[in-house]
Design brief:
By secondary structure, the chain is mostly helical. Helix content is 50%, strand content 9%. The structure holds protoporphyrin IX containing FE (HEM).
């Protein structure tokens, strides 16, 4: 298989991420990538996700109940904080408290450093704080790894410690460390971005808020189980449409590993190439009125997304397709369930959310919203 490879993910992502998230799955190629991906997949199988759901459910509910009501607040900041706290528990298995807050600070510093322009470790700079954050995360993982290997628990760190290849081999300590730290990174801002886009769309389209609310009420439960999730068809339409209009990762970079012909162009080896979900998601040959929020385009009756296998690509495609896509969907559904069964969401009349487009799509103003209890 290795000989067939045409593009490198590692060569494209490494210049951006290799000092902060070295040897994360997306930063691997070919056989090394395939081997690790297969093992990691077991941390995202159904039984594992059911375990994460049990952890996330009460935590999201508690968090949302404590948010401001009847007054405007910045949704982006609130959801980012809540997801960080949930991640400490679901990814790392850390209960809230001092350890969680120092790990969260280290993680935020590491993420922010991925945008640093000057990569010189001078105290006070983004880059310096990022390297310190990375070191803190590494120390955290290394301190807990022996205990994690002892007993299997319902967190991703533990699942990765216990995951094996076909011959029963587990990851080395350093591989566990690099994978879990990368997973935190891959999950966090992408999910924050998605929830911002969905909440904005729902605030602008109250009829969809009501539709989802009715979908949740029809289940007649105060807490979602894994099996309930697949019944949430309208929620899935909204999830897909928000990811179409605002794919959190608007561009996916690669580097060619050999000379090639593409659409009649000669592309030499070692050229930077990119693929843009953002562009693809607005191509008029595939999507009717692409600038309109219209979740039903994904309904079985219309199936507008079925014209081309790669027309809807918020999670990428092929060998590196997002490993956490089911996890992201589960978390989004849980969040929306607890949100819409409690609150009505609104934005000021005439409000249009400004966006920043790089490195991920985010509200440029923090997304001021108001939650009114039902
Ligand atoms: C809606 C939220 C998410 C979006 C839009 C998203 C998007 C993406 C995209 C576009 C890629 C492919 C990058 C490339 O080909 O270069 C990717 C890869 C990846 N994502 Fe996600 N992601 C999301 C959530 C998550 C979550 C929650 C996790 C983990 C729990 C995760 C873990 C990963 C991993 C491990 C990879 C690398 C896969 C590989 O290289 O084989 N993602 N994601």
């Amino acid at each position: 298989m290795g000989g067939l490879q045409q593009f490198s993910s590692r060569l494209a992502w490494n210049p951006l991420l290799d000092r902060l998230f070295p040897d994360g799955l997306m930063l691997k190629d070919a056989d090394a990538h395939r081997y690790d991906r297969k093992i990691l997949q077991s941390a995202f199988k159904k039984s594992a996700i059911e375990g994460y759901l049990d952890t996330m459910n009460p935590h999201l509910e508690r968090g949302l109940t404590a948010w401001p009501q009847n007054k405007s607040f910045f949704f982006q900041h609130a959801v980012k904080q809540l997801l960080l706290e949930v991640a400490a528990e679901v990814f790392l298995g850390v209960e809230m408290g001092d350890e969680a807050s120092s790990v969260n600070t280290a993680f935020v510093d590491t993420m922010l450093a991925s945008m640093a322009v000057f990569k010189i470790p001078v105290p006070g700079t983004l880059w310096y704080r990022g390297l310190k954050g990375r070191k803190h995360l590494e120390d955290f993982v290394m301190t807990h790894i022996a205990a994690k290997r002892e007993t299997e628990a319902q967190d991703i760190f533990s699942q990765i410690c216990h995951a094996t290849d076909e011959d029963g081999n587990v990851f080395s300590d350093s591989a566990v460390r690099d994978h879990i730290i990368f997973l935190l990174f891959a999950a966090h801002d992408t999910t924050t971005s998605t929830l911002c886009s969905i909440v904005y769309a729902l605030a602008k389209h109250p009829e969809w808020q009501q539709r989802l609310r009715e979908e949740y009420q029809s289940l007649g439960t105060a807490s979602l189980s894994y099996d309930d999730l697949s019944k949430l068809e309208d929620t899935k339409l909204v999830f897909k449409e928000a990811l179409r209009m605002y794919p959190p990762v608007p561009a996916i970079p690669r580097r060619t590993v050999k000379d090639m012909e593409l659409f009649g162009y000669h592309i030499p080896k070692n050229t930077s190439v990119g693929l843009s979900p953002l562009f693809t998601h607005y191509m008029e040959e595939y999507w009717s009125n692409p600038t309109q929020f219209d979740p039903e385009r994904f309904s079985k009756a219309r199936a507008e997304d079925k014209k081309h296998f790669f027309q809807w690509i918020p999670f990428g495609g092929g060998a590196h397709k997002c490993l956490g896509l089911n996890f992201a969907e589960v978390q989004t559904k849980l969040f929306l369930f607890h949100l819409l069964t409690r609150y009505n969401i609104s934005v000021k009349a005439g409000y249009e959310m400004p966006r920043s487009w790089v490195p991920l799509i985010f509200p440029a103003d923090g997304l001021p919203v108001t939650f009114t209890p039902l």
